[in-house]
Amino acid sequence: MELAKMSLTELRRLQSKVETEIRRRSDSARRDLLKKMQKMAAEEGLSLSDLLPSAAAAEEKSAPTKRRTKAAGKKAAQVAVKYRNPANPQIGWSGRGRKPQWVIDWLAQNKPLAELEAVAAK
Fold it and tell me: Which protein family is it in (predicted)?
């Protein structure tokens, strides 16, 4: 295979295929090793979670079950409002994620964010 003669598109396709194959083989090796370790532990009457605290999570990942998502069975915890819009106290922001426009405008006026905290405490 002459890499120098390949077009950029062909090289990118090849790169994608190589990355996919590396990921596949790595995952396969991980699963095989985990199965071997589980078998060795079982022969001694133990489970991997008995031996390693983080093994319980690894065992769950290797189990061929439905794909898990954050939304499956868990609700995101509500975060308390830390900052309130002084023009409209009904509007708040937890301080996490993207800043709302009213916070950006507030900071653009060189006003400290701490003043919005004080509004939230009232």
Answer: Belongs to the histone-like protein H-NS family.
